[in-house]
Design a protein that fits this description.
alpha/beta, two-stranded antiparallel ribbon, 8-stranded parallel beta sheet, 9 helices
């Protein structure tokens, strides 16, 4: 039995660039918000945002995911103008200072924000609401860029009350499949879609355990899978339930090792994009997976990722 199955041969394209997903890719998180649960306020200043982007790229990130609105439970909503004012200067600065080859994703549900971000140079759309806001599907079809469709029920303010499933695996899979069918029916191309099971959104501890141990079931949808568990509460619950004292201070960054380990489980089940706050630690975990997978395939001339 192979422990290191090759990833599916998916490729994303945008702006004349191609991103090969047959190797695991890291999406580095760049929050330019004052209230994100892990790093709110750390990278609001333009120079700090660009510097952090450079650090994540140097550490191994293939994609930078820029977010201007927190989606943590009970987060305060922001206006379109405010979100644009947070996001667009960062996109512009990265393009001006780091060039066009950097893959930039925008973490937003607002079609006006992604339109402005695309005009400024963004490549991808990461939408926790899976294009459910008015005009989102039409905008995704118009821009023709890769889009991440995440599974969530309700809104961040209501999702915890909707974490009720008879069979979380089949229900998440079916709801994602339904959403994919809906957006493609209105013009979004199938080969532009990435799916995300939505760890931390409308799921409890048991649901997360089930999803993480049976993530491979989502491969039946024949789409790239993004895995985003970085610093989520589930990891703190895992550590607390195991008696690990490192979470005593309740700092989200103390969960990074558990998050990196979870990323390996996800890779083993076909996830090809790992979204992470701690790119260096995630890169080390992925490097181990990649080198062992090459060894198992009998490739002696192993190279770096």
């Amino acid at each position: 039995m192979s422990l290191f199955r090759p990833l599916p041969a998916y490729t994303l394209t945008s702006r004349g660039k191609a991103l090969d997903l047959s190797q695991p890719r890291i999406m580095g998180i760049l929050n330019v918000t004052p209230d994100s649960f892990s790093d709110g306020g750390q990278f609001n200043a333009l120079d700090k945002a660009v510097s952090h982007c450079q650090q994540m790229l140097a550490a191994g990130a293939a994609i930078i995911d820029i977010g201007g609105e927190s989606t943590r439970p009970n987060a305060t909503a922001v206006t379109t103008t405010e979100e644009i004012q947070r996001v667009i200067p960062v996109v512009q600065a990265i393009r001006q200072q780091l060039g066009d080859e950097v893959w930039l994703s925008i973490d937003t549900s607002n079609p006006e924000v992604i339109q402005a971000a695309f005009a400024a140079g963004a490549d991808m759309w990461n939408d926790v609401r899976a294009l459910k806001r008015d005009g989102a599907v039409a905008m995704a079809a118009k821009l023709d860029i890769p889009v991440m469709l995440m599974h969530m029920r309700g809104e961040p303010t209501t999702m915890n009350n909707l974490a009720q499933y008879d069979d979380v695996i089949s229900e998440v899979s079916n709801e994602l499949a339904s959403r994919v069918a809906e957006v493609t029916r209105f013009g979004v191309k199938h080969d532009k879609i990435v799916i995300d099971p939505g760890f931390g959104f409308a799921k409890n501890y048991e649901h997360h355990c089930a999803l993480l141990t049976q993530l491979n079931s989502l491969q039946a949808l024949n789409l790239p899978i993004m895995f985003g568990i970085s610093r989520k509460r589930f990891l703190a619950e895992v550590l607390t339930n195991s008696g690990v004292p490192a979470v005593a201070n309740n700092k989200a960054s103390e969960r990074d090792a558990a998050g990196a380990a979870a990323g390996l489980f996800a890779l083993q089940q076909g996830a090809c994009i790992i979204r992470s706050h701690n790119v260096p630690m995630t890169q080390q975990a992925l490097a181990l997976w990649y080198q062992l997978s090459l060894y198992e395939q009998g490739i002696n001339d192993v190279s770096t990722m």
